[in-house]
Structure formats: structure tokens, C-alpha cells
Amino acid sequence: MLPTFEIFGSIAGVSFLTVISYGALTENKKLLSLGVCLFSIIPITGEVYLYLLSDHSIHLFFLLIFLIQMMISLPINSSSKSSIYLSKKIRLAILVFNLLHGFLILSVLFNIPLQFGFMHLVVALTMLYTIVKTNQK
Questions:
Q1: What are phi and psi for residue 28, nearest 5 degrees?
Q2: So what's the pLDDT on residue 73?
Q3: Would you state the pLDDT for residue 78?
Q4: What is the 3-state secondary structure (H, E, C) of the chain?
Q5: What pLDDT does residue 135 have?
Q6: For residue 113, what are the CA distances in angstroms to 1, 7, 18, 35, 102?
Q7: Are the C-beta atoms of 72 and 40 separated by less than 8 Å?
Q8: What is the pLDDT of residue 19?
Q9: 72 phi/psi in degrees, rounded to 5
């Protein structure tokens, strides 16, 4: 991976993780959604880059997953019962996507720097925190 891409991705990733964590701790759903949406851009660009380098179709699969994550995490302005129920399912999907992708990166199957795997695990833990927090209420 290019060092420039790795440095930029790490700085952007830490910035977006800060937004995600702040949104989760302050229970600001719009900020949390915005952070996840912006964070999804990093794996999207990474998967496009890796696909162009290696031409493996698995990168297109992950690209599709994170495009879906970006679309479902767009902030919305609704407080109906159905949107609250849907937001729990969305957080669960984001948790599963990032948990699996983080473990794949950390298992060193691909030539991806390990800090990106840890970033995905932080997103998954943050989603787990929000799911547990909302179930306690």
C-alpha cells in the first residue's frame, strides 16, 4: 500500500473515529451516523485501490458492503417508532460488517496495514456500546 494513502487513511480514520465515539457517548444519533458514513469512505477507497492493484473480485464484494454501510448510515431526521426500530437493526449490521472486516484485516489475509483492522474493531465496539445502551433504556 502506498505510504501516502496509509498516512492519509490513518489520519482520516482517527478523525472519523473521534466523531463516532463522541456521537455515541453524547447519544447524538446524527453525529454518530455522520461519523460512520464518513468512516465508510476509507474502506471504499481502499478496496477500489486494492482491486486496481490485484484484480481480485473479493475486493468488489467488500466495496459493495461498505457502499451499503455508507448508504444505511446516512443521517435522517425521523423519530417515528419504525425508524427507531430500524436504527437498531442498522447498528447491528454495522457492528457485524466492521467486526468481520476488522478480523479479516488482522488475520493478515490481505496486504492491509493492521491499524485499519483496529479501526474497524473500534467502530464495532462503539456500535455494541450504543446497542447495549439503548437496550438498557
A1: -95, 100
A2: 86
A3: 64
A4: CCHHHHHHHHHHHHHHHHHHHHHHHCCCHHHHHHHHHHHCHHHHHHHHHHHHHHCCCHHHHHHHHHHHHHHHCCCCCCCCHHHHHHHHHHHHHHHHHHHHHHHHHHCCCCCCCHHHHHHHHHHHHHHHHHHHHHHHC
A5: 80
A6: 8, 10, 20, 21, 11
A7: no
A8: 95
A9: -75, -15
Dihedrals phi, psi of 57, to nearest 5 degrees: -75, -15
What does the pLDDT read at residue 85? 66
pLDDT beneath 50: ranges in the chain: none
Question: What residue has cell string 490485484?
Answer: 54
What is the radius of gyration, based on Cα positions, of the chain? 15
C-alpha 114/C-alpha 102 separation (Å) is 9
The reported pLDDT for the residue numbered 80 is: 60
Which residue in the block uniquely carries the three cell numbers 487513511? Answer: 9
> How far apart are alpha carbons 133 and 137 in whole angstroms?
7
